[in-house]
Amino acid sequence: MNESIPAASITSTAAVKKAKPWQRLLPLLITAACFAYLYSRLSHGAAAEGSRPLPYLLRSFENVSWPRWLALMVPYCFLYLVLDSLVVWSVINWFNAKIHYADILPIRASAYILSLVNEQVSKGAIALYLNRRDGVPGWEVGSSMLFLMFCEYYSLMLWATIGVTLRWGGIQPVFHVIPWIALGSGVFFLIFHLFFNGRIGSGIALRERPILRAFRLAKVWHYGAVIVLRAPLVIAGVMVYTLALRLFGGSVSFGEMLGYLPVIFFGAAMPGPMHSVAILFWVLLFPDKPGQMTAFGFVMHNFFIIFNAGVGLLFLRRATREVFG
C-alpha cells in the first residue's frame, strides 16, 4: 500500500466526511449532564448556608491568594509544554524522521490553540506541519499521533488505577470500576500488540493500513517509554494541585493527591467543553465542599488550556510561516 499520501489529501478527505449527529451531540450532552449535577450540588450547599447558588460559588474565589496561585500555575504550564513537546519529538524520531527538538516545540505550542476546540485536531496540525516542512508523508505522522493518543490513554489508565488503589477506602465507590477497566485494557493491549507484530492475524488486511504504520513498528519498550516520559508531568501535577487546593481552602497531603489526581486527569480526557467531567470529579471526590471544588476545578483546568493557547500564540507566526510560507 502507498504510505506517502500527502497531508493535504487527509485534510480534504476529512472535510468530506462530516461527523455524525451523535458524535457532535455527545460532548454537549456530557457537559450538560455534568453542569446539571454541579448546579444541584451547589444549590444544596447554598441552601445549607442560607444563600443562593451564585453568591455561594463566588465566595469560594474571595480568599484565594491569586499571586501565589499564579506562581504555581505559570511554571507548571511551561513545564508541561517542554515535557509534552519532548514526548511528541521522541515519537516522531522513532517512527518518522530525525528532527531537532527546537523544530517540534513551536508547532506543539501552536497546536495548543486548536486544543481549545479538540485535542485530536491539534495533533493533526502537527502532521500537516511535518508534511509541509520536512516532506514526511502525512499518513506516517498521523499514524504516530494515533500511537501517541493510544499511549496517553494507557498512561492515564495506569495512574488512575494507582490512584484508586491507594485511596480505595476513601474514594467514592463510583471510581472503583477503574481497575476493572484497566484490566480489560491490559488484555486488549496484549491482543492488540500481538496482532500488529504479526504473531496473530498476520493475514488480516487491517494490519497493513498506512494509518496504523506506527503500531507495526512499535516495540513494547516504545509504549513504556511514552508512559515513563509522561510520568514527571503527573508528579509535578500532584505537587502543584496539592498546593493550589490549599489556597482554595482544601487540605490534602501529597500522598492523598496522588490518589486523586490521576482520576481527575482521566476525567479531563473525556469529551466535552470546559473540562466539565474533571470539574465534576472534584465535587465527587470532595462532596462536602461543592462550592470550593467547583471553583477550584473550573479555574485550574480552564486556566491551563487557555494559558497554553496563549503561549501558542507566541509561536504561531513561525509555525504558520513554515506550514504555508
Oligomeric state as shown: single chain
Q: Please give the alpha-carbon distance between the first and last residues.
A: 31 Å
Radius of gyration (Å): 21 Å
Number of helices: 13
Helix and strand string, N-terminal first?
A: HHHHHHHHHHHHH
Query: Which sheet architecture does the biggest sheet show?
Result: none
Strand proportion: under 5%
Helix percentage: over 70%
Report the strand count: 0
Content-based structural category: mainly alpha
Number of discrete domains: 1
Task: Write structural notes for this entry.
- The protein is mainly alpha-helical.
- It has one domain (20-324).
- The protein contains 13 helices and no strands.
- Helix 2 runs parallel beside helix 12 (276-285) and helix 5 (101-115) packs across helix 13 (290-324).
- The chain is globular, with a radius of gyration of 21 Å.
- Residues 1-17 have low confidence and may be disordered.
